[in-house]
Design goal:
The protein has about 200 residues and is α/β, with parallel strands linked by helices. About 30% of the residues lie in helices and about 15% in strands. A seven-stranded mixed sheet has the order 3-2-1-4-5-6-7, sandwiched between helices. Strand 4, helix 5 and strand 5 form a beta-alpha-beta unit. It is globular.
Length: about 200
């Protein structure tokens, strides 16, 4: 798969954003993992986009019907139409899994949600930068300290929350209510994007 990497995806100024759909996936809540996938707030994606100049942006999601679409995907599309993202954006809904995986594995800048493919991407992608929707604290859903240990060649960035992670209740339990969908696009709890594992 990595042999088929397209030069576009290796460009150092082209982030690839992974936007989870809102309905069932391989990482939905189970008794062992009651929180299920962690869907970041819109502000996370906007802070990453605004953190540096990008030549273009790719936004991926695997939704197929309207109710599956993560609300942040539509807002990003509208902001792009209005020219407010700062760089041209390409949106890819409902592509086959192989194509999405290839693009995320090949990208030099990967903006991740917490999903069933996160570990695969962290371990095997060619990324030079990971942007994670969590704080830089030890442990947590992404085990940021382990990523820095096993991938010392990669820059890792996380969220600096205005208060605490707990203020963003969507991470507590995902049940796809209108209130949760609204919170995803209106939450302003993300203060900034910060570099993790700086020695």
């Amino acid at each position: 798969m990595l042999d088929s990497c397209h030069p576009r995806n290796r460009a150092s100024h082209a982030p690839t954003l992974h936007v989870l759909k809102t309905l069932p996936s391989l990482c939905d809540p189970t008794p062992q993992h009651p929180r299920g996938p962690q869907k970041p707030p819109l502000q996370f994606y906007l802070k990453v986009i605004g953190s540096r100049p990008w030549s273009n942006i790719s936004v991926l999601t695997n939704a197929r019907i309207q109710r599956e679409f993560n609300p942040t995907f539509g807002v990003l599309q509208e902001l792009d139409k209005q020219g407010l993202l700062g760089a041209p954006a390409n949106f890819y809904p409902d592509r086959d899994l192989y194509t999405d995986l290839r693009d995320m594995l090949c990208a030099e800048n990967v903006v991740l949600a917490k999903s069933s493919i996160t570990r695969l991407l962290v371990r095997h992608s060619r990324a030079k930068r990971f942007f994670l929707p969590t704080s830089c604290a030890r442990g947590g859903p992404f085990f940021v300290d382990r990523i820095c240990l096993y991938r010392p060649d990669v820059e890792v960035y996380g969220i600096e929350w205005k208060t605490t992670l707990n203020e963003y209740s969507v991470y507590d339990e995902w049940i796809n209510t209108d209130a949760q969908r609204l919170e995803m696009i209106t939450s302003d709890e993300v203060k900034s994007i910060q570099r993790c594992c700086v020695k």
